[in-house]
Amino acid sequence: MSRALVLNASYEPLSVVSDRRAAVLVLTDKAEVVADTGAVLHAADIEVPVPSVVRLRYFVRVPYERRASLNRRAVFARDEHSCQYCGCPADSLDHIVPRSRGGQHVWENVVAACRPCNVAKRDRMLEDSGLRLRRAPRAPRRLSWLLVAVGSIPEPWMPYVDAA
After folding, report:
1. Burial 40-68 (b: 16+ CB within 10 A, else e)
2. Which runs of consecutive H residues, i.e. helices, occur in the chain?
3. What's the pLDDT tens digit per position in 114-157?
4. pTM score > 0.70 for this model?
5. Among 11, 45, 67, 140, fewest CB within 10 Å belongs to which?
6. Is residue 32 domain-shared with residue 50, that is, in the same domain?
7. Which helix (H) or strand (E) holds 48?
């Protein structure tokens, strides 16, 4: 099953839904097809192009700014699955300021790490461990939730997503 990007009436990305849900939005006249996959859904008496991008016909007010939640998958995506201390493939998370020393569980304090670096650092402060960060961690950009949701952004979505 493929997925479709749902845009607000203002062309702002809202969510990712299944291609069938996107087709239902189009059939109920709640959305219009902006880009399709080239495939066709067949029913008894109609054929509908399988949507890749749909735009709602009405504006939906979003009461909050969506952010990617802080979890293992999102941290690995942000850090490109590489250890932020040595560059090897990462398999664990590390708090720069250990939680046992008052460190928070926030984007700016969590990095992907390989097991040897994580074990070497233990519960010490970064300057006491002899390790150095390759780059400073930061909260993901505005549309990174989209990248976390689908893994990689399909080509037809690119004009509507400003480099998540």
Report:
1. eeeeeeeebebbbbbbbeeeeeeeeeeeb
2. 19-27, 72-78, 115-121, 126-129, 144-150
3. 999 999 999 999 899 999 999 999 887 666 666 666 767 778 88
4. no
5. 45
6. yes
7. strand 47-56
Q: Per residue in 72-120, pLDDT tens?
A: 988 998 898 999 999 999 999 999 999 999 999 999 999 999 999 999 9
**Domain count along the chain:** 2
- Judged on CB neighbours under 10 Å (0-12, 13-18, 19+), 110 is buried
Residues near 159 by beta carbon (within 8 Å), at least 6 away in sequence: none
What is the phi/psi pair of residue 78, to 5°? -60, -40
* DSSP, res 67: -
Domain hosting 12: range is 3-64+142-160
Statement to judge: residues 17 and 56 lie in one domain: yes
- The structure tokens listed for 20 are 């069938």
